[in-house]
Write a structure and sequence with these properties.
With 428 residues, this protein is of the alpha/beta class. The protein contains 18 helices and 6 strands. Among the domains are: 110 residues, no CATH class; 163 residues, no CATH class. The two termini are 20 Å apart. The chain binds iron/sulfur cluster.
Length: 428
């Protein structure tokens, strides 16, 4: 037996209630099992029941064995003083309150069809990445959509919380925070860490002073990234190096530089080389000198898409790295890269900003933009599609990623509308 399954049984009252009584023989009548408490304290609050001749409103605590009460030291925790019923799988030891009276206990071991639990175990212990994938065709679209609607806000909240944490470190500076998030996103997965480190070592307030000169922005970014340390015969390289040497003295940046070896090129398509991404990032900051304010002004995916569809400087149309010319002209930032930035930076920023100002319109805008943005295509979304889920936009793909990471991977099928629906189907 698992506690999660006992919670489920109690919440939905899926046990034999014929002649229900406590372990000491008092009849029990349950009017309301209460509401699930996901925080510290007893498992269910505001349960209403009659035990013997007394009506009670209070909490219910659930354990596999009644001795769990003492093991978890609930006898010494005042938060458990209002527990009116202890629900256990097996009553292996009587539990007494502080005043010495026996805590009313309901034992479920002989009130459940064992097959019911075995079905549940079969579901959660399936080796598939999505344990319920075989059974999904029997789940209604409404149940699936309701679960996606449930998990998407969790994902947005988590991302907003990360933004609040960085905002705190940046003394509540939204522009600096936005710049750091964008930098990380420009690093894509493989160079996200050095990009983020670069943004921390090179403050946005320094770059903004040079926002009118793309050459200076490139010099600062490539220089701080550690790419301008070699002796190379290349006119553009040496121009950047000269500018960087002047600027790094001016802003005292010398000791805060990355090393070129921190950047990864292996197994990357040339269009995703960090040199190209740095050039694109410089161009973005050049065309949008107040990036966060620009984001707040944009209402739709189309407007954001055109903001991020920037052209890097001429040199980076002809090179993937310094010196060696590219065989074909280098393309501008791709559609899927822009969508990734919108999903991972713009949308969370709008949510965090809306929450911080208590303005729902920014959160609504974030949701609308997610619906307008193409769905991500990755290993997780492919799995869901193979299981028959529709993944038509970024709202769906983000919800499915959250469902997989935070429910399926943790076997939280009993907290999932789909899992509950599947188990209920078998029981009813
Ligand atoms: S958490 Fe939900 S979607 Fe995931 S495997 Fe369990 S029942 Fe299926």
């Amino acid at each position: 037996m698992s506690e999660a399954f006992l919670h489920y049984l109690w919440q939905f009252q899926y046990f034999d209630k014929h002649e229900l009584q406590t372990t000491s023989g008092e009849p029990i009548h349950i009017f309301n099992p209460g509401t699930r408490n996901m925080n510290a304290g007893p498992d269910f609050h505001n349960a209403r029941m009659r035990i013997g001749n007394m009506e009670w409103i209070g909490s219910t605590e659930i354990h596999i064995q009644s001795s769990g009460w003492m093991e978890h030291k609930h006898d010494r925790d005042p938060a458990y003083d209002n527990v009116v019923l202890h629900v256990v799988w097996k009553n292996d030891a009587p539990v007494r309150r502080n005043d010495g009276s026996i805590l009313p206990t309901l034992e479920l071991i002989n009130r459940i069809d064992e097959k019911f639990f075995l079905d549940y175990q079969r579901l959660v212990n399936s080796p598939e990445t999505i344990p319920c994938s075989r059974f999904l065709p029997s789940v209604s679209e409404i149940k699936k959509l309701s679960m996606m609607d449930k998990v998407l806000p969790d994902r947005l909240q988590l991302k907003a919380q990360r933004i609040f944490d960085s905002l705190h470190k940046n003394y509540n500076d939204w522009e600096e925070t936005c710049y750091q998030l964008l930098a990380r996103s420009f690093g894509y997965k493989i160079n996200a860490d050095p990009f983020q480190q670069l943004a921390r070592l090179l403050p946005y307030k320094v770059l903004r002073k040079h926002a009118d000169r793309l050459l200076h922005l490139e010099a600062l970014l490539f220089g701080q990234a550690g790419f301008l340390e070699d002796d190379i015969r290349d006119e553009y390289y040496n121009l950047l190096k000269r500018e960087y040497n002047l600027l790094r003295q001016k802003y005292n940046l010398s000791d805060r530089r990355l090393n070129k070896s921190q950047w990864k090129f292996l197994r990357l398509r040339p269009a995703n080389f960090p040199t190209i991404r740095l050039a694109e990032f410089a161009a973005l900051l050049f065309y949008n000198p107040s990036m966060f304010s620009t984001i707040l002004e944009k209402e739709t995916f189309a407007e954001l898409y055109s903001t991020f569809s920037i052209k890097q400087s001429e040199y980076w149309f002809q090179h993937y790295t310094f010196v060696k010319p590219a065989k074909e002209p280098v393309s501008t930032i791709g559609r899927s890269n822009i969508s990734t930035i919108i999903i991972n930076v713009v949308v969370p920023l709008l949510v965090a900003y809306g929450k911080s100002r208590d303005e729902q319109r920014f959160i609504d805008r974030a949701i609308t933009i997610l619906h307008e943005t193409p769905a991500e295509s990755n290993a997780i979304t492919k799995l869901w599609k193979e299981s028959g889920f529709k993944c038509k936009d970024a709202f769906d793909s983000q919800a499915l990623i959250e469902l997989q990471n935070n429910y399926c991977a943790k076997k939280r099928c009993l907290d999932c509308n789909i899992g509950v629906s599947l188990i209920n189907q078998r029981y009813q």
